[in-house]
Amino acid sequence: EFSRDMLPRLIEEFVAPGNLSVQIVIVPLKKYPNSALEASTLFCATKEGKGLTMHDELTVATARDRKSIALIAKRLALSAAFTKCLDAKETKAALVTQQALIAEHGVALIPEFLLGSEKKTGLPSYADLRGWIRSLQK
Q1: With contact defined as beta carbons under 8 Å apart, do 74 and 54 qualify?
Q2: Which of 12, 39, 73, 85 satisfies CB 3.0 to 4.6 Å to 78 for a cystine?
Q3: How many CB atoms lie within 10 A of CB 67?
Q4: Which residues have C-beta within 8 Å of that of residue 79, sequence separation ≥ 6?
Q5: Per-residue pLDDT tens digits for 34-90
Q6: Hey, is 47 helix, strand or coil?
Q7: By the 8 A CB rule, do 58 and 38 touch?
Q8: pTM, rounded to two decimals
Q9: Residues 125-135 pLDDT 10s
Q10: By CB neighbour count within 10 A (0-12 exposed, 13-18 middle, 19+ buried), where does 73 fall?
């Protein structure tokens, strides 16, 4: 819901004018069997400028194994470097760095929103998120 509905509005209203920077941290979740592969998939697709598109594809995919991801990558016209990226040491290191980032900020539940020095857990309404952003801009 966030990437489909809220993020495009945030980009239009706050990011495009230069008032907000959005960083999405990709985190494998142990309770999902292919979570590490999916995290690598999102990281590598993002390197080619198609991270959100890949996220949308994974959200509706019935299977999220290597074969399914390869088919999605082909449909999205990702390069051959995408497949190499999935198992690259650089990718694994980047995901470890992102894990450290969430630990540093005390993130225990997902989604978690960090704005300035404030943190909120759970998916807010767009109106609440916009109000929070505007209150910090003053």
Answers
A1: no
A2: 73
A3: 8
A4: 48
A5: 899 999 999 999 999 999 899 889 988 988 999 999 999 999 999 999 999 999 999
A6: helix
A7: yes
A8: 0.82
A9: 999 999 999 99
A10: buried
